[in-house]
Amino acid sequence: MSEPSLDHYARYQALKLRRHPQGILEIVMGARGGVPGKLSTADEGLHRELADIWRDVDTDPDTRVVVIRGEGKGFSGGGDLELVQQMADDFEVRARVWREARDLVYNVINCNKPIVSAMHGAAVGAGLVAGLLADVSIAARDARIIDGHTRLGVAAGDHAAIVWPLLCGMAKAKYYLLLCEAVSGEEAERIGLVSLCVDEAELIGKAFEVAGKLASGSQTAIRWTKYALNNWLRLAGPSFDASLALEFMGFAGPDVREGIQSLRERRPPAFKPDAPF
Fold first, then answer.
1. Which residues form a coiled coil (predicted)?
2. For residues 102 and 245, is the Cβ–Cβ distance under 8 A?
3. Which of 9, 249, 253, 275 has its CA 20 to 30 A from that of 218?
4. Total tally of structural domains belonging to the chain
């Protein structure tokens, strides 16, 4: 019997897709521009595809489990600065990306197939949304998980408010989200932010091992258990919606412009000392 085709995903360009035995679909966020040693950054195309892919996974009869990973020196490198600049300058772009950011979170939560993430190197931005909302999240011991929002000058929106307090508790969530501190894979496992951590050499193998176990189990039981557990995340929907609205309101303010400029100049930001709220 021939392997199922990828015609279901023909429109995807920024994401690389591969089918494996047992109905495992591998989603790879490619290195930026295909250049080895570069991080995958969420430009316009990748951000849109990361939001949309989970609806197609949900309706794909040939997929039982997804493994999502990054290619190159890390899992994901955060938002592309050109896209961030457009969001700051253009209301239409800001509104479109807001909707994609909302859809990314809810589409991962509502996807009926279990998702396994394999995070190495830096894990930031839109890719991190899928990485931490995955049903089983696996990190390399020396991975660096960073929610980069406050460093950029906007509120920690994306997935942070919906899942960090549930995974690692409010005290740890506030510490890492407010200070924009990096969390190693080993520390992330210790505080409950990820499911497992392993040596980087074992990361991909472990992800596929877990995916194989999920693929060989009762699909009805596994999918319904995921649905029931994710009601905890759905309950946090209003908090998430508020955080995302505040994040995108920040893209219209002055701090994000300083954040963008400081990142381009590779220097600490000099934000104004007060705020209207």
1. none
2. no
3. 9
4. 1
Structure tokens belonging to residue 171: 């005290």
- Contact (Cβ atoms closer than 8 angstroms) between residue 145 and residue 193: yes
Return the structure tokens found at 100: 């994609």
Which residue segment(s) compose the domain that 236 sits in? 7-265
Q: What CATH number corresponds to the domain at position 55?
A: 3.90.226.10
pLDDT digit string (tens) for 179-237?
999 999 999 999 999 999 999 999 999 999 999 999 999 999 999 999 999 999 999 99
Residue 7 has pLDDT above 80, yes or no: yes
Instruction: Give yes or no for a contact between 105 and 111, defined as CB atoms under 8 angstroms apart.
Output: no
Burial class (CB in 10 A: 0-12, 13-18, 19+), 231: exposed
| Amino acid (one-letter) located at 50 | L
Name the pairing type of β-strands 183-184 and 15-20. Answer: unpaired
Q: What is the pTM of this model?
A: 0.94
| pLDDT range class, residue 77, cuts 50, 70, 90 | confident
Structure tokens at 107: 């589409």
Q: Which of 192, 188, 189 is nearest to 168 (CA)?
A: 192
